[in-house]
Amino acid sequence: MFTGIVQETGKIISIKSLNGGGLETTIQCSFAESCHIDESISINGACHTVTRFDTETFTVQSVEETLRKTTMGDLKKGDEVNLERSLTLQTGIEGHLVQGHVDTVGEITSMEKEETGWLISVQFPEEFETMIVGRGSITTEGISLTIAREEGNEFTVAIIPYTWEHTNLKNKKTGDKVNLEFDVIGKYVVKYLANLGR
């Protein structure tokens, strides 16, 4: 479980194929030395398990299902990724409850610079339209954000300068793909209401 508050951005050091299917990714970050095997870390919003670590890097593996549902397969050596370690009982929930289970991949349709922040619009598959609500929460690239506007299968979020500078959003451009996780509470409500008539 995570909160969508990015702790830092890491740098991809290497990506290797696993038996022609999955990928093994090694990431450099400041907290690598304090990692442990089997630790869960959110990488751009996708929960991964640490399989190896040293003083400067940690390594994770992405299986085929993860590559189908996330942008992990699009990453390259040198890319910056948003990192968050899993929630503990001593940690405040400063964003919202995030599972690290990416629901779908969206596409950035516009990025507008305002006086103090940025407006980013993202289009996503129509089948997920019931999963978002204005002023509700959404996880984009592992970042807990508030939906400022919604229209059909597109939403807009407002990005404050701190979030812009301390996440990989500053490296994004129109047309880029982003990982999306919809609010887990909203997903349960939608599922419950859909089953009421059965």
Q: How would you characterize this protein structure?
A:
A hairpin with a 4-residue loop joins strand 7 (104-113) and strand 8 (118-123). The protein is mostly beta strands and 198 residues long. It has helices spanning 64-69, 161-166, 184-195, and strands spanning 8-18, 22-28, 40-43, 46-53, 57-62, 80-85, 104-113, 118-123, 137-140, 143-151, 154-159, 177-182. The radius of gyration is 17 Å and the shape is globular. The mean pLDDT is 95. Helices cover 12% and strands 42% of the residues.
Summarize the entry for a quick read.
This protein is mainly beta and 198 residues long. It contains three helices and twelve strands.
How confident is the prediction overall: mean pLDDT?
95
Query: Outline, from the CA principal axes?
Result: globular
Unreliable runs, pLDDT <50, ≥5 residues? none
What's the total helix number? 3
How is the topology of this model organized?
Layout: E1 8-18, E2 22-28, E3 40-43, E4 46-53, E5 57-62, H1 64-69, E6 80-85, E7 104-113, E8 118-123, E9 137-140, E10 143-151, E11 154-159, H2 161-166, E12 177-182, H3 184-195
Antiparallel strand pairs: 1-2, 1-6, 2-5, 3-4, 3-6, 4-5, 7-8, 7-12, 8-11, 9-10, 9-12, 10-11
List keywords for this structure.
198 residues; mainly beta; six-stranded antiparallel beta barrel; 42% strand; globular
